Amino acid sequence: MVDNDAADLISISFIDGEYFVFDIEAVKRLRNHHHVAGILVGTLPQVPQQSTFLGLPVQLMPEEAALLVQRGVARIIDEGSSHEVILAVDENDIDEATAKLKINELESTGSESQGQLVSFTTPAISTANRIALSESSVAAVYDTPRFDVYKYLHKRGYFISPGLRFGSQFLAYPGDPLRYHSHYLVRGLGYGEEFSLLELVGSGRLGTGVKKAWMVGGHVPDDDQHKLAALDSSKIIESEGDESIEDFVSFCVEWAGFG
Amino acid sequence: MKKRNLNAIYHSPLPVEVVALPPLVPHNPISVAYYVYQLVFVPFLWGFKRRRRLTAYLELYTDSVSSYVSSIAVDSYEDMQELWKAGFFGKGTQSRSDPTWALRTAKRLQEASGETEIVAPEEVTARRRAARKRFKNARALAEQGVLSNPADSEKVEANEEPRRQKPTRVEDLALRDSEGNVRQLEKLQLTFQEAFFLAYALDIIDIYDDRTGDLVTVPYLLGLLMPDWSPDNSFIVNYVVYHHYRSHGWCVRNGVKFGVDYLLYRRGPPFSHAEFGVIVIPLYSNESKNQLMRRDWYWSSGVNRVVGGVKKTMVLCYVKVPDCIDKWHTVEELLKMYEVREVVLRRWIPSRNRD
Fold first, then answer.
1. Which CATH number fits the domain that encloses residue A219?
2. Basic and acidic residues bias located where (chain B) (predicted)?
3. Which of the following is catalytic: B10, B242, B312, B338?
4. Does the residue B346 lie in any domain?
5. Do A202 and B261 touch (CB under 8 A)?
């Protein structure tokens, strides 16, 4: 599985349906070069209340993992089946000494190919022995309205975090969340998908109450693009390079509070 | 500023009059006679002089296929006042809730009236906002250190109270009738549930078709409001909930401004804020349909935050929908087929709910 490019790939561990990054260098790279911040979820033993300050690993949303894989900067490691492979190796080695040798061997090969990564995961497991999943494992996310809106905002340089506490799918930050408050509560919808006016009112009100705007947007299917162009030419976003976002409409709702 | 006596203005919780019957002593013929007189004749006699029935107009929107009710409104000033003061029904089309447009306009058109009695919620809000703005300006100035210089602070004082010259606008002239009174351009718009409750449950309102002038009877009104006659029609499901809470003595008002279906007030908007925000959820016997109608966590989290942010409790009101309903059911039979049950949902944060 390991080839030359693979050394540069960020390994995203897929554990029980969730995506994690355990490597601090990878986390830095994600944050600095790919504006993917993720959420720190690991507890720090030295911080007494393990709720505010958290450490590695970083958990990624499925959309973040999918985007990174789609761009070819990361790969998904299936930790569950990798673990079983390692266990199978250990069971065959009845002799304790040879088992230790095997582990050492694994460690050394690991440190050669991706040294730092090994030290942050279980020392016995090297990346060489882990099972990387193909792109199809995240492809289910690609065609969802959530992913469309995620990609749309991410492409424009927004940092995006989960938005459940504000009743939205995402929060969009104009820069690193450590420096900025979020500007938008984001809701991705299918084009032509109906939603209730009560949701519009409630979300608009909530957004304004926390000094944000509620943003709703959807990907325009190809056969509707000419209609949109007729409506307003400025709403068509020109395609850039290989990215597949050509057309997306979005609106912001704020609570005016007249009367 | 004079505080109004709310109990005197809004003395009646519903626009109906209740007559207490005298105590009945069975072995005393005089008591029995008096009781029968009170029970039978007084309401009959009162029927003529008691309260006149209220009048509302129904506006139909008709397309090629069918007709829909587009609005039901009351336009007589007395009826509007009565509906608002007894039960807080409807909403003034030019006002936030209480139909006070004419009062406010008259006040605005008058020359510098100075400190007057506050009658409309809009005025309360305007005054609060003005006070807040003054406070913010003063604070900003204090932060700049301008107030440390007495000469400047006097200047600020002078700027604070600009005498507003009211410009006479051309369109204002059209607001007065020939006698100089402000014309009543406002209507009290009723929600369909309110209108149906007044027509069916209280039977105190006559609804007329706006175009033909015909009286709309209760069964006909029901047919207009739920044209498809499906058991989970949004009108009937919402009406069941409306009727349910009105029957329990709550003042029920539309909750769209907080992203919920209904707001429950203990007595009414002038007395206190609404305590509960009600969300109506139809519940089907068919579980797969329930799954189809399921709402997500984002919705729940968002609504709960809006409702919780204004110190209300979120009530999920489940309405059990019958499998089928028939047109020959009376309204009473129809309502008996629905069941209402409630669940309160609250955001609970361990660290904030400890004390």
1. 3.40.1350.10
2. 152-169
3. B312
4. yes
5. no
- For A125, half-sphere exposure in the C-beta direction (CA atoms, 13 angstrom radius) is 20
How many domains, chain A? 2
Are residues A51 and A149 located together in one domain of the fold? no
CA distance B42 to chain A (A): 45
- Does B99 sit behind a cis peptide bond, omega within 30 degrees of 0 on the bond before it? no
- Choice among B10, B265, B284, B338 that is catalytic: B265
Question: Helix H segments across B255-296?
Answer: 287-292
Concerning whether A34 is annotated as a catalytic residue, the answer is no
pLDDT on residue B69: 86
Q: Does A181 participate in catalysis according to the annotation?
A: yes
Q: Is B243 a catalytic residue?
A: no
Residue B257, phi then psi, degrees to nearest 5: -70, -15
CATH code of the domain in which B82 resides = 3.40.1170.20
Structural domain of residue A180, as residue ranges?
143-253
| B230 vs A: CB within 8 A | no
- Residue at A220 is within a domain: yes
Nearest chain A Cα to B303, which residue?
A202
Which residue among the candidates A150, A173, A184, A219 is catalytic per the annotation?
A: A173
Looking at the fold, whether A129 and A205 belong to one and the same domain comes out as no
Candidate ranges B10-14, B113-117, B165-169; pick with highest mean pLDDT: B10-14
The predicted complex's ipTM stands at 0.74
Yes or no: say if A46 and A17 are a contact pair by the CB < 8 Å rule: no
Residue to mutate among A205, A212, A253, with most B CBs inside 10 A, is A205
For B36-82, how does the pLDDT look when each residue is reduced to its tens digit (9 = 90+)? 887 777 766 665 555 678 888 988 888 777 778 889 999 888 889 88
Measuring CA to CA, how many Å separate B13 from each of A42, A212, B222, B275?
A: 57, 40, 25, 17
Domain boundary among A118, A137, A156: A137
Write the residue in A201, A206, A259 that is nearest to B122 by C-beta: A259
Question: With 50 as the cut, is the pLDDT of residue A244 above it?
Answer: no
Q: Do residues B354 and B338 both lie within one domain? A: yes
**B282 and B199, same structural domain?**
no
Rounded to an integer, what distance in angstroms lies between the CA atom of residue A177 and that of residue A172? 9
Q: How far is B122 from chain A (nearest CA, A)?
A: 6
A201: closest CA among A212, A210, A190, A214? A214
Question: CB under 8 Å to B224, separation ≥6 — which residues?
Answer: B58, B60, B67, B68, B69, B216
